[in-house]
Amino acid sequence: ELGIRIPRPLGHGPSRFIPEKETIQVGKEDATMHTLFAESFATLGRLDNVTLVMVFHPQYLESFLKTQHYLLQMDGPLPLHYRHYIGIMAAARHQCSYLVNLHVNDFLHVGGDPKWLNGLENAPQKLQNLGELNKMLAHRPWLITKEHIEQLLKTEENSWSLAELIHAVVLLTHYHSLASFTFGCGISPEIDCEGGHTFRPPSVSNYCICDITNGYHGVDEIHASPAGSIPVSSTESVCEVEALMEKMKQLQECRDEEEASQEEMATRFEREKRESMFVCSSEDEESAATRDVSRHFEDTSYGYKDFSRHGMHVPTFRAQDYSWEDHGYSLVNRLYPDVGQLLDEKFHIAYNLTYNTMAMHKDVDTSMLRRAIWNYIHCMFGIRYDDYDYGEINQLLDRSFKVYIKTVVCTPEKTTKRMYDSFWRQFKHSEKVHVNLLLVEARMQAELLYALRAITRYMT
């Protein structure tokens, strides 16, 4: 009556992929979760939807919030507004408007110059120089060389110090992988964010044509089977879980009986690496970057390409020559104290996190499956572990799961609800979120390894 437009949320709950009733409801959380919610609220000034989905795994969320808080707000080589601007640059590479919008607000809040938000060309030259590293880290980290590092450290008046560069690299990799989580879990924008609300009144049929054009199809969509997919009978899905457990058992028995030779292991890695190139997202339409987000980075046509395509040969990155534990960790900790420790803890929690359950089964050792997921991601990035039998990956990860993994890790902006629904159909949503945590951390570590190795080579 007063002519005031009242916003209504466009979505239902923190995720477009997970029905609201299956997420943790605020007000019904336990004491541990409540503390985490309070921490998140105190740090971010809001309880964001990433937190509301991550809280399925409180131990991980605690480590994640601690690390993010340290990177953005505690003492460090970079000024606060630079940190948020780098977050914008990194999230924009994957067209993640959700994260871009959050950091635009934070950037302005800490006194950032609004002019920089008109496009990267309006930011200081020092930040513009970071564009090339941002692009390669996000899409083809294996191409980073010590020459790229040298350019950043030696450009006279706009040069970076080593400590500043480490801080920037950790921020870039953090936000590339957080974009993977955001798209992989279908995080919805909050009601006060762009794309999170509509001003149109609810229509009689619960949603109106304007909502459909905005990509929101009403509450029914959440419960409908994914478009174009065939509803799966629960017995079929149960068989899927049983089959996976049986394979794990067989692989364990084979492991105990015989060990493959080093040559055979190397061959299996090369085969898996080659095969990973032929896994591509089924919904392979090009998602054009919106002008709104694409102004924060250069070279919008540059995207993910498999590393051995078109006759390009990139040498395998052997983990025993440069690993996070033996090399990366100490370099980060030396130049940016405490961050190596925080990252190390976060990697460990994600990699070792288990509740010993699989779908409806209890007391299951899932370490073999978690290792297969982690090593498959590193294999897609050309990183090889000598002591791992890559033959296990094909046994444990089926095609639809590989499509999901590769999409979320390499081109997260192309992830769809259909892909999320089509893998591990009998597993709980919390288990699928757990998978996303593994993808996020394995991706971040792979990107970091390439950048840190190049920095080490420059230093030596």
UniProtKB/TrEMBL annotation:
Signal peptide start-end: none
UniProt main location, coarse: cytoplasm
Origin: domain of life: Eukaryota
An individual GO BP term: regulation of response to reactive oxygen species
Subcellular location: Cytoplasm
Pfam families recorded: PA26
Catalytic activity: a hydroperoxide + L-cysteinyl-[protein] = S-hydroxy-L-cysteinyl-[protein] + an alcohol
InterPro entries, per database record: AhpD-like, Sestrin
GO cellular component, one term: nucleus
Annotated GO MF terms: L-leucine binding; oxidoreductase activity, acting on peroxide as acceptor
Keywords attached to this entry: Cytoplasm, Oxidoreductase
Gene3D superfamilies: AhpD-like
TM segment ranges: none
Family the entry assigns: Belongs to the sestrin family.
Name of the protein in question: SESN1 protein
Origin species: Phainopepla nitens
Gene coding for it: Sesn1
